[in-house]
């Protein structure tokens, strides 16, 4: 049962964003802007990029844009659920698409694909937790996915020598 900004259940978890979620929201917004800057700076190279990479970028930019909104706005209402569905589906698609992108490791999977495996497993679990009103489990799953699948994996793409990193810093 929701009572103001608190949920009363066996976990009694506050629905208000905490410091960690504020940090994740700011980091997601910053990463979104850095990727946009990289894309603008790399405009002359766009034609050389495979369509699968463009789809991957598009599907990851959506949850990056939604993350600060979801972490900082009111939770549990219809808008939260609708944005959450879009976020989860887009993040799941991003992970699945990544298995087709193997430019770094001579056609094999790289270490960054570990994030994809974790995402493919975790997204259905966080959706199930939300549907079963297991708020603490849902919240922890979201926090781990934002931390690892979005932010850690995303910031790795900005390393010089990677496509986006080369465009941003080059």
Set down the secondary structure blueprint.
Blueprint: E1 2-3, E2 6-7, H1 19-41, H2 51-72, H3 78-98, H4 113-131, H5 135-156, H6 163-169
Antiparallel strand pairs: 1-2
Helix content: 55-70%
Biggest sheet statistics: 2 strands, antiparallel
* Distance from first to last alpha carbon: 52 Å
In which order are the strands of the major sheet placed?
Answer: 1-2
Structural class call reads mainly alpha
Q: On the 0-100 scale, what is the average pLDDT?
A: 90
How many helical elements? 6
Uncertain runs with pLDDT below 50, 5 residues or more? 1-10
Specify the oligomeric state.
single chain
What sequence of helices (H) and strands (E) makes up the elements? EEHHHHHH
Strand-residue proportion: under 5%
Radius of gyration: 17 Å
Taken from the alpha-carbon principal axes, the silhouette is globular
Q: Which keywords apply here?
A:
67% helix, 2% strand, 170 residues, two-stranded antiparallel ribbon, mainly alpha, disordered N terminus
Characterize the structure shown:
The chain is an all-alpha fold and 170 residues long. It has one domain (18-169). 67% of the residues lie in helices and 2% in strands. It has helices at 19-41, 51-72, 78-98, 113-131, 135-156, 163-169; strands at 2-3, 6-7. The protein has a two-stranded antiparallel sheet with strand order 1-2. α1 crosses α6 and α3 (78-98) packs antiparallel against α4 (113-131). It is globular, with a radius of gyration of 17 Å. The N and C termini lie far apart (52 Å). The relative contact order is 0.15.
């Amino acid at each position: 049962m929701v009572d103001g900004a608190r949920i009363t259940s066996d976990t009694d978890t506050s629905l208000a964003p905490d410091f960690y979620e504020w940090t994740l929201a700011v980091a997601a917004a910053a990463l979104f802007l850095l990727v946009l800057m990289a894309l603008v700076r790399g405009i002359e190279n766009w034609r050389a990029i495979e369509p699968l990479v463009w789809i991957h970028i598009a599907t990851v930019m959506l949850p990056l844009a939604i993350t600060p909104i979801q972490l900082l706005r009111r939770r549990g209402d219809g808008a939260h659920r609708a944005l959450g569905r879009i976020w989860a589906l887009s993040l799941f698609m991003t992970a699945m698409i990544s298995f087709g992108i193997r430019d770094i490791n001579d056609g094999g999977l790289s270490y960054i694909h570990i994030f994809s495996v974790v995402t493919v497993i975790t997204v259905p679990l966080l959706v199930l937790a939300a549907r079963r009103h297991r708020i603490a489990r849902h919240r922890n799953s979201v926090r781990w996915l934002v931390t690892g699948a979005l932010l850690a994996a995303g910031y790795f793409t900005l390393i010089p020598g990677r496509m986006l990193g080369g465009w941003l810093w080059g």
